[in-house]
Amino acid sequence: MIDVVYFAWVRERIGLPRERIETEAATVADLVEELRGREERYAAAFADTSALRVALDQELSEFDADLAGVREVAFFPPMTGG
Question: Which of 55, 65, 73, 81 is the 20 to 30 Å CA partner of 28?
């Protein structure tokens, strides 16, 4: 089981702030593909992963990162300073 957390417009498109899922995904990219296949709202949220960032256990990571031992995956848009 893994906790998946969604922020900003990702959360708005999916309609959930977080969920706990069972997955066989080996990498973040595999998890994204699995989520896209769930239903249209996930497909819309993950249509352009270049517009997303990912954190594994609260550390910024890449989409090719291994999920072994990861407890939480968070998806969010890039942030800007101000």
Answer: 81
**Mean pLDDT calculated for residue range 45-66:** 96
58: left (phi over 0), alpha (psi -120 to 50) or beta: left
* CATH T-level fold of 2-76: Ubiquitin-like (UB roll) (3.10.20)
User: pTM for the complete prediction?
Assistant: 0.93
b (16+ CB within 10 A) / e for 33-65: eebbeeeeebeebbeeeeebbbbbeeeebeeeb
Q: In whole angstroms, what is the distance from residue 44 CA to residue 3 CA?
A: 20
Cβ count near 72 (within 10 Å): 14
